[in-house]
Amino acid sequence: LQWIFGKPVNVFSVSGNKAGLKVDVEDLQSSLFSFMTDDGSVIPVYCHTDFLQFPPAHRIKIVGSKGRVEADFNAAETVIFSGDEKRVIDHSDFIRNDMFIEELKDFMECVKSRKQPNTGIEEALISLRMALGSKISAEENRQVKMEELKI
Fold it and tell me: Which end of the chain has fewer beta carbons closer than 10 Å to its terminal beta carbon, N or C?
């Protein structure tokens, strides 16, 4: 979400262990993040993650006033709706594991050559704050402002 929308302002989350799975993490979580735009308006972004759905679903939908983009990671396709037009982009040649291999290669190259990684510490901290803010929000049943997380 950070890569698409930037740095969130706050989050409200609900989570739990509902599936009876023997895992030490929540098996479902729904979060509503608020992101600030360049013009000062707020964009609400809803995120739901769970281990319950079968078959598994991995999708993202971005809705705007002039259309929407829907990506289905299991079907390996992206659909772009713009006005009356619909465009389907096929990603069936994408091999998900290659992404992780490339990430490891980049990390090793950074270690060897002491170059900066593609994702810096600032992005990592924002991601960590998003996860921690979501967890605190669910535990305390309240909205969490990202600025209150001093990590």
Answer: C
Q: Pairing between strand 42-50 and 28-36? A: antiparallel
Helix (H) or strand (E) holding 8: strand 8-16
- CA–CA distances in Å: residue 41 to residues 34, 36, 38, 74: 10, 6, 8, 33
Confirm if 34 and 11 have CB atoms less than 8 A apart.
Answer: yes
Amino acid code (one letter) for 147: E
Q: DSSP of 35-91, one letter per residue?
A: EE-TTS-EEEEEEEEES--SS---EEEEEETTEEEEEETTTTEEEEEETTEEEEEE-
CB atoms within 10 A of CB 83: 7
* Confidence (pTM): 0.82
Q: How far apart are CA 46 and CA 134, in angstroms?
A: 12
| Rounded CA separation 151/147 (Å) | 10
| pLDDT for residue 1 is more than 80 | yes
CA 41 to chain centre: 21
Q: Which own/partner contact pairs does 52-57 have at CB distance under 8 Å and 24+ positions apart?
A: 52/18, 52/19, 52/27, 52/28
